[in-house]
Every structure is written in C-alpha cells, then in structure tokens.
Design brief:
heterodimer; A: about 80 residues; B: about 500 residues; Rossmann fold; GMP Synthetase, Chain A, domain 3; 26 strands; about 30% helix; globular
C-alpha cells in the first residue's frame, strides 16, 4: 500500500488518496496520469496490466488499485 | 465563392436532410434539425444587432453545443466557447476581456449570474432553440457577410498571466475545407470521432467538416480516454472512420496497449496535431492499422491547420516527423535572426512564420500584441504580405520539408494544451509567502515543476490549493520544490536553463 501511495503522490501530489474513492471519475487521475500509474505499477509490482482492466472502477480508489494488483499477481 | 461555412451547411442539409451531423451518447441532430435549431438560435442572436461581436457559449461539450455554435454564426456573431471546468477567477478574467454580446448556457450550468455583467443576456440553450425563426433577419445577415468576418474567439494561455483571445475568421476554415476536399476528401458515410474540447482550435475540424462533406461527428465521452479498451469499442460501435486528435490521445492508447482485445475496424484517416507525436507510439498504431492514412498536421490557434506531412515511409522510433509542407493557399517561411527568409536547401534554423489564407485576424482587443506577432514581410516573390510569427524554431530538411526544433520562449505543450509557463508563475502570486518562482517542464514525462524560494517552508498542498483557484487543472504543476536560493545567470535573472537541466532533464531525446 505504501509503495502505491508513493507512486500516486509522485504523479499528482494534490489528492487525498486515502479517502477519495472517485479518483478517476473526479478526474484527479486523467488518462495521462493513468499511463504513468500503469507503467509504474507494472514496474514496481511486477505485473502486466491488460488494457481491459484499465477502467475507472479499478483505479477510483487506492483499495481498488490494490485489489487489482493482488488479482494480477495471483494470475501470474 | 462562399463567404461563410453556413453556406456549406445549407447546401448539405438539402442533399442529406436526414443524415446525422452531430451526435453524442445522449442526443443526435440530423442536418435538417441542426439547421432548424441553429436558425432559431440565430434569429435571437441576430436580434441583438451586434454583428461581429462575440457570444460566449458556456456549455459542456456536446452535439447541442456544436449546434449552438452554428446558431451564433447564423446571428452574425462569432463564438467563444468557455471551458466550464475552469476556475471562476480565470473565467472572470476572460469575460472581462471578451465582453460578450450574450451568453448561451445550459440550465444546469453553475450559477452564472455572478460571472456575467447584468447587462449581458444569459440564454438557456433549450429555451433558445424554440425561438421563432426570423427568415428576413437571417437573410439580411447572410447578405452582408464577408469571408473576413470573425468566426471564433479562442483564449489561449498568456505569458503575463492574462489569457489572450485569438480572433479567427471564416476564410481560415473555408480555405481549409477546400484543401481537405483535394487532399483528404470525406464521404457522407464517414464518421469523425471528436476528442478535443471545443475551446481548442483543432475542434474546428470536428465542427465544420461535416457541413462541407455531409459526414457526421460523434463526440466521444472524455472518460473513454481513460479506458482504452472501451475507447476502441466505442470507435467500432459508432463506425468511426477518422480521428483528428492530439498526439497525447494516440499515445495513451499505445502506452496502455489499447489494441490488445480488438482493433478499430473502420479507421481510415488518422490525423494528429497540436504537439510533437512520439514516433515510437505512432509506430504502435501503424503496426496494428497499416492501411490507414497517417498525417502529421501543424497549426496553431492563430493559423488553424497550416502545414501537413503524410507518412509514406517507415520512421524509426527515435526519428522526428517533419511538419512537411504548407497547405494550399498557405505560406510557410523560416526567418533567420536578421529577419531574412532562409532559402530551402539551407540547413539554417530560424523562426517559422505562416501567411496566406490560414491567418487569423489577430488578438482580440490587443493591437500591440497583434502588431508584435503578425508582421508584414516583403519577399522576393511577393508584395508585402502578412505573416504570423509562430515562435517555433524550424529548418528545412534535405527533402525540402520543414522540421520543428523547439520553442524560442517558455510556451509548452502538455496533453495538447498550449501553456505559457509564465501564466503559472503569475498564478503563484496567490501565495504571498513565495518570494520568487520559476516553472520548468519535463517534456518526456509531461511534468511541470515549480521551483520557488520562500522565507518559511510551505506545504505543497497549500500552494496547489491556492493556485488552483487561478489556473485550470491542465496547467497545475506536478511538484513544488523549495530552493534555498534562486540560481542566477550572468544577467542576474533566474537561471531557467540551469534549473531545467538539473530538475527536468528528459532522459531520452
């Protein structure tokens, strides 16, 4: 979780990642930030994020992102 | 010879009254409906008797907004789309310069009364659409049209902190449509997938191309650009055949492997404009869609589309695409430091200048700035002619194509948005604790860094919270770094070059 928060803060320091559950819907994470995020998640967590998993539901909150990462890790 | 884009609309609406011209997920307009609604709106706008004056269109991007824009033109005014997501303070600044004759808004727009002067009428789009048509008034407006009449006022970032309004005219888009008909003709079956907001000059393509060719524009919901698989699905669902996007949008699809599950089956034209297209991401598109035509376009709010380069060969990932050649009736020159045109064949760099039918009228209510950027040049082959100094540094390559090398000032492009770093620095005056600040940009990561000095340490969120009241989100810095001391160059000014080298150096060029 800390690792993910570090990545997120690096990309956009303005958001309250621990409470916000609408990061994509509220456009705190736009498509460009998602590109940086997905690239860094792939590098840091050793997973590859398929394009069909890149939907707002999987990135709207830190919890959803952690769930996605765990699912991808289990699959690999 | 046509004097207004509306003449195309009226002809096309006779040929294809029931074909769709604009649609979004909620609403579709046929040509006949668009003409009817726009003429109704135009009747009200025209009743203001304010020819050439701007009408602010304060709406979310939608098919209805495109029709509202046509309505403004029917009324003999020019349109100024206002980005509804901007901070109120910036909207206020823009409106104080614009002084619109009227505003077209939506019922659910934010409370507008405090933004506009009480003398300015604010009309609700839905109500306005029901205005009875005044055919006599519209005919009178049509008969007095000239192709140099203002078409739009679009605000771009200003280095002093005040956005500047660029005033375009009908001739720019008429010339562009004539050129497209020769080089990249559309058929009535074509569907354009619209990506950019209507306050970008690039959107002229999405708004006006259907009027000339009888094709249609589908407004892609912005959120699809955060879900590449859904985006591709949408392109297929809507049979999108052409995209005219900023390179960032194409890049997002490539970097998120958007073609993993399916390919856009109908795309035949892929145009990109507004910033440098990284070849390695374009190559992803070309590998997956080898039969589409790929065109690098060059233009600006001051000139709309003025140059183009169609790719007929492979490019290596590290190569840069040329800007190519000027479009028909457009002139492109490179001026050396002494103000002399660089001859093709010479490798010398200079400032790219654009002239001819692509030229806008200048900056709205700013004759000084207009005089500075729009200059008269006498070349060997021409009488004195007006050119726009783009501020882009360019040279000719061995094939005679113009190649871009960078900027001579502090203007950057981020996600296709044109940003003056000076406007962000000016916004930092909202934080009185900051003594001095400089913004630098890392092109590769598209990250803006604000480097500042202050007596006390300031929390980054305090800074971002305060400047976000003045500048839009796309201008917000990614990081705030406090310096003990501002490094100086030999002239005693902040050493921007050194700071960029230290903090924002791109790893790959």
């Amino acid at each position: 979780m800390d690792e993910l928060l570090e990545i997120l803060n690096d990309i956009n320091p303005d958001a309250d990642y621990e409470t916000n559950e609408h990061l994509v819907d509220d456009e705190i994470l736009t498509s460009f930030e998602l590109v940086m995020l997905v690239t860094q998640i792939s590098d840091e967590f050793g997973v590859s994020v398929p394009s069909e998993a890149i939907i707002p539901e999987n990135f709207n909150s830190v919890r959803a992102m952690m769930d996605l990462i765990e699912r991808l890790q289990e699959d690999e | 010879m046509k004097k207004s884009v509306l003449e195309f609309l009226e002809e096309t609406a006779v040929s294809y009254p029931d074909r769709c011209v604009y649609s979004d997920p909620e609403r579709t307009y046929t040509f006949a409906e668009a003409v009817r609604t726009a003429r109704a709106i135009g009747s009200r706008v025209g009743s203001l008797r304010a020819p050439g004056r701007p009408v602010a269109v304060f709406m979310e991007k939608s098919a209805s907004m495109a029709v509202a824009i046509l309505g403004v033109l029917y009324g003999g005014c020019c349109y100024c789309p206002i980005d509804v997501s901007m901070p109120e303070e910036r909207i206020r600044t823009i409106l104080s310069v614009l002084d619109p004759a009227a505003v077209i808004a939506e019922t659910d727009s934010r409370d507008l009364t405090k933004l506009f002067s009480p003398a300015c009428p604010v009309w609700d789009f839905a109500g306005l659409s029901g205005t009875p048509e005044d055919a006599e008034l519209l005919a009178h407006i049509r008969d007095s049209r000239r192709e140099t009449d203002p078409l739009y006022i679009l605000f771009t970032s200003g280095s002093t902190g005040i956005p500047k309004g660029v005033m375009g005219c009908h001739r720019m888009i008429l010339n562009n449509l004539r050129w497209l008909a020769k080089e990249f003709p559309y058929e009535p079956e074509d569907v354009l997938g619209s990506q950019v907001p209507f306050h970008f000059v690039i959107s002229l393509h999405d708004i006006f191309v259907p009027l000339r060719f009888g094709c249609s524009t589908y407004i892609i919901p912005q959120e699809y650009f955060s879900s590449p698989a859904r985006l591709v699905n949408c392109l297929n669902d809507r049979h999108v055949t052409s995209v005219f996007w900023v390179p960032s949008a194409l890049t997002v699809v490539a970097r998120l492997n958007g073609f993993d599950t399916q390919l856009p089956a109908f795309l035949r034209y892929i145009f990109f404009i507004g910033e440098v297209m990284p070849v390695r991401y374009l190559n992803y598109w070309r590998r997956h869609l080898p039969d589409a035509r790929y065109v690098n376009m060059y233009g600006s709010t001051e000139t709309h589309v003025s140059m183009f380069y169609e790719l007929f060969r492979d490019f290596r990932d590290e190569e840069r695409l040329p800007l190519g050649q000027a479009c028909e009736n457009v002139r492109a020159l490179i001026l050396d430091e002494g103000g002399r045109p660089v001859p093709p064949g010479s490798e010398a760099e200079g400032e790219l200048c654009i002239g001819g039918a692509a030229l806008s009228l200048g900056y709205y209510k700013d004759p000084e700035k207009t005089k500075d950027r729009f200059i008269f040049l006498k070349t060997a082959s021409t009488e004195s002619e007006r050119f726009y100094r783009t501020g882009d540094i360019a040279s000719y390559d061995a094939d005679g194509n113009i190649v871009y090398h960078g900027r001579e000032d502090f203007q950057i492009k981020r996600m296709g948005y044109r940003i003056e770093l000076g406007e962000i620095e000016a916004a930092a005056s909202a934080v009185p604790e900051i003594s001095e600040c400089v913004c630098v940009y890392n092109e590769e990561k598209q990250m803006i860094l604000m480097l500042y000095t202050s007596a006390e340490k300031i929390d980054s969120r305090t800074i971002s919270g305060r400047i976000s009241e003045r500048i839009p989100r796309y201008m917000m810095p990614n990081r705030y770094i406090r310096l003990e001391q501002m490094p100086r160059n030999e002239n005693g000014k902040a050493d921007r070059r050194g700071l960029k080298e230290t903090y924002a150096r791109s790893e790959k060029k």
